[in-house]
Amino acid sequence: MYASTHRPTVAKIDLAAIRSNIKAVQAHIPTATKTYAVVKANAYGHGAVAVAKAIAPLVDGFCVSNLDEGLELRKAGLEQDILVLGVVLPEAIPLALAHQITLTIASKEWLELAQHENALIEGLRVHVKVDSGMGRIGVRSLAEADDLIVSLQAYGAQVEGIFTHFATADEADTHQFEEQLAFFTDLVSHLQRKPALVHASNSATSLWHSETIFNAIRLGIGMYGLNPSGHALPLPYHLKPALSLETQLVHVKQIPAGAKVGYGATYTAKAPEYVGTLPIGYADGWTRDLQGFYVLLDGQACEIIGRISMDQTTIRLPKAYPLGSRVVLIGESGVRSISTTDVADKKETINYEVLCLLSDRVPRCYAD
Length: 368
Hints:
Elements: E1 10-14, H1 15-26, E2 34-38, H2 40-44, H3 48-55, E3 61-64, H4 67-75, E4 81-87, H5 93-98, E5 102-105, H6 108-116, E6 125-129, H7 142-154, E7 158-163, H8 175-189, E8 197-201, H9 203-208, E9 216-219, E10 243-248, E11 251-255, E12 260-261, E13 267-268, E14 273-278, E15 294-297, E16 300-303, E17 313-317, E18 326-333, E19 336-338, H10 340-347, H11 351-357, E20 364-367
Parallel strand pairs: 1-20, 2-3, 2-9, 3-4, 4-5, 5-6, 6-7, 7-8, 8-9
Antiparallel strand pairs: 1-10, 10-18, 11-14, 12-13, 14-17, 15-16, 15-18, 18-19
């Protein structure tokens, strides 16, 4: 999909803010800790290649969700370590080997499938995933971990790391976090052959449980300046959001009392009102459940009225504004602001999802 560059809707990305956020986290963790920047899902909507190039001098490697995301970084010239966090089936091993991309191995069954398909894994760089309580991918016992590591090495794979992922590191209740940490710590300490790299810390763990870091962190949403917990926990230090979302008025008119707006006629004007139309809709990631929320124009909150369409959104204006007037959907206007978390609250979801929903139709504009 081509970005709609001839439309005034744009996501602005502050690369300097991302670098500043990385440095802020690194200042609060042991100096010998390796930093892996998580740039999966197009760097949480910020643009994987642009972000990775901007932060490359600050990090030791990158984490992606699948092989194609890793190949995109390699094609763009990124030479640092790339770890695929999800499971890649054995048929893709030759590509991983050719481009020196590290794979996550989560079960002995994966190795058995690779053997069945006569896949050659000699020289393949891998990390072993431990399911310490998340319930997704990974081995679930010391015996499984030992068996998998020994078997992988027997077939020539380079087992460089072992890791887990916490389910509740961003919550005030630390009970499950502590259970997972104890399980993983005990497993790692009793491994027959412990890999050099041991990591369990995502953004939330790095922010609120820095004392539990092993020797690497995977820095995700915090790198982009957002609170992993939403509102549940206050950030321990300042992070600056890197993304803002803006558009412009493309149509303004006055409608009489009783006039309907949008599909389904879900909004009725109670009095004569000015209505503005914005060139953004659910195909851009500005979804229908945001009806009744607001945007900012000239420092004023303007309610979203009527159902959001595929390509357009209508708002109630306090007066007639000229076409081309700047409208802020995420970011600052005057003394007011709308955060990604504010949008997430309206949608009853998390800030991660708001960012990842921004489609490729929305151009990313970078400032450094």
